[in-house]
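Record Transglycosylase SLT domain-containing protein, 325 aa.
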Amino acid sequence: MRRLAALLLALGSAAPAPAVPLAEHPPLQALIDTLVSQDGFARADVERLLAGTQFHQSIIDAITRPAEKMPWHRYRPIFLTQQRIDGGVAFWNEHAALLARAEREHGVPASIITAIIGVETRYGAVTGRYRALDALTTLTIAGLPRSAFFGRELRELLLLGREERLDLAGLNGSYAGALGLPQFIPSSYRAYAVDFDQDGRRDLLGSPADAIGSVANYLRRHGWEAGQPITAAATATPAAASLGGTDPALKHTVSQLLAGGVSAPGAAPGTRKAALIRLEAEQGDEYHLGFQNFYAITRYNHSALYAMAVTQLAAAIGAQHPASP
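=>
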């Protein structure tokens, strides 16, 4: 911890980010041992690759202050802009055949696929400024509550690089190590990416086709229900407000929520499971019922604010796109 504190202090200056001393960080030593003993990497190759990584305090700052901690009335305007809506319409027009095929094969609407890529990277315009190796190494040794998770993702990154023949030394991503147009973390890339353009590679970095197919596959694999609703606008009595929050887990049936003081004209009573989502608006709380498809979007990013931004951006794009029903 003293070495890490000294490292953080050094980062306060304008000096270049320091190289990570591998020998001083047991999590990295354990990771190297695993990559060698279980994954068949040559120790010298792994050490050479990780020895070139740098620690960035700005990564720690970013991950401890995510946008998803904002109130909804500040979060929503980041993504629901006319520029992003217009960009979504243009993306849909450019890739209409691919989006139609993804919707046909996976049941996920073209508007939702488009909106996720729009929220994540502005349709590929902003895919990340940190080297993925630097981001994941920084987070692995930072002593954060999720550092062990990021250590596992660092291992997944090296496995991904070998499988997909990626140049990891020059591969950029987000401050959390997410990659490509759809911002898949390495484990998700390995598990859910698809070769949608059928060129023999799963390329989320440069292939819009693979990004589109992979987003659709990800949502389907996480329980997307084709043709079913995502949300319904709702109101809640003071007594029912305690049933709501930002937890997207489907804890109640629609009938239970309606009986508890929730009103949702767009949701018929029944056994369909739902979450009562309460969001902090400028003029008081607003409520929505989130159904299974809303929950599926939160498997992409575990935030009700994120899923609502995707849902509303998709609706705004769809309203301006001529192919929408």
